[in-house]
Amino acid sequence: MTDDTAPDPAGDEPAHTDTPSAVVAQDLTFAYPDGTRAVDGLSLSIPRGECFGFLGPNGAGKTTTIKLLATLLSPTDGTVRVNGYDATSRRDAIRGTIGYMAQSVSVDRDLTARDNLAFACKAYGVPRDRRRERIDELLDLVDLADVADTPAGQFSGGMQKRLDAATALVHDPPLVFLDEPTTGLDPKARSRLWEYFERINERGTTVFLTTQYLAEADALCDRLALLRDGSLVESGTPESLKRRVGGAVLAVEIDGGTDTASAATTVARERVLLDPEATVETDEGMLRVTTERARQLGPDLLVALRDAGFDVTGFDIAEPTLDDVFFALADESTDDLDATGDHADAAQSTGEGR
Amino acid sequence: MSTPSSDVDGNADAVVDRPTPASNSFVGDVWVNFERWSCKAIQTPATLVLEVALAVFSLLMFTAVFGDLGELALERSGFAGVGYVTFILPAALVQVAGSAAIGSGIGLIGDLQSGMFEKTLVSPMHPAAVFLGKAASELLRVVCYVGLLLGLGTLLGATVETGVAGVVGIVLVCLLFSLWYMSISTIVALASRDEGTLDAAANLLLFPLLFFSSAFLPLSALPRTVQDFATFNPVTYGADGVRALVLGRDVLTVFQFDQFGGVLDTLVPAVTVLVALDLLFGGVAVWLLAHTSRSVVG
Question: Which end of chain B is more exposed for a tag (fewer CB within 10 A), N or C?
């Protein structure tokens, strides 16, 4: 790992605007009392202004990592600097310079949208003379101006999420942590929040998000890291990760659903001359073969399937998406992922139907 | 395996430098949270109305049902000439102080469930200020309830013999009483994290304690077992402390204390017991809050 922004052993505390890295973690470890390691020797460095995405299945350690970085948890081992401040000794300084949006909606349902934002402004010390303007600006930004004086408890889930996002940004923090910010939202609300996050990132805010939506990571992130069992498995730009999968994806739709598609993987492996690097998976009744020679092997595979008695109802050859990266790299954990929803959304959002 | 490196093309040059907002003082943080919880109370008036209604109903009901019998018992127990409404007013005040304190744990559970607990922890506010602000708002609510009930009691014919100073003393004793109950409420809330459990536990604790104390009748008019229990019942000290200030005389009968004479012979031991309970249960509640704050994993 190249890391030119390692923590200063002298302990100087640079101002958060002077440090080139928003987050620097070295050998970050968090273990529960029973010894289970939720985060295991994680090292990463995130330049300011970047939109960084953490991908991984449930239980991979994404939320624990984000809580360690946001100072809600103390590491068992390793060091973290956020906006130049040590996460153990300068928690207060970090808390003033970050925004944090938890996985579940965190708004006061008794208070109106305006009161929620006012509370956040006061909590983060936004000067009195700037509060009204800031609140109005944020209400407009998240499209809640019309319901500003309605209690948040009367909002839909999407509206509460948007309000939650706004409260994390009242103090215009240089770094925001977003833990699965669009989970549970309908596609329209999700798209709206993506635009919002893109906008604040364009303004220079460093965005650190965890997500299970691969399309979200593809759309928003400059760089991604795949987490599994508390450790980084792979990282890079979305494009570089896709390139690492290699080749294209041959997707074959087989009549008969998931079980039939699973049976078809045996045919693909036994009767078609696949490269050693090729991967064969099933997903929602689709057989997916990822290989450098997808176009050449396509006819052979279709013939082999027909000869074996399978009824092929459609096929497509597509460039790899982050879904393919994810399945290729995190195959041991894919059972935990809500594959149905995520894939449907991913394909829809990226326009990469197969 | 590779790890992300810091030399990935980032647009660090485009970063907008912005000043860190000025953080609040500790007192400022207390005020911010006091405002939040007060605002929440105002925006959910049903809770306020129901809590006051319960205490008013108790005052009216006990006066109507036990008025005559109560005055007879008072006459036989050394409280001749004291109207039953005057005698029972401290019970209603202690009840409303306890009921209002239950709201403390309910609010905490709400914050734990809604994620607001974590949200305030990750803010630059001092955690102690967060909880102090909440407690201050709840204590203000107790003051308002006590004031309302004192006014109603006066309208019904009760009198406070110790005047304005006595009224201030009554409010302070009620606050001391509500603090230990607030602590219990917080402890149960953190242990159960369930509003239904807290509500059941708090009411189970408050109402039997009210009846097994000097709240509704002089202890000498109650069975021996109740008298014995009342000695160890915090409600006895809350009710007697308030009653001493209402009647302007020593009313403590669970043990003899004759150091100062008059009201102080009840007030000093009552306040001592309540402060001790506040410190004991308050300490446990603070420890649990600190423990919960450190282990928010969600």
Answer: N
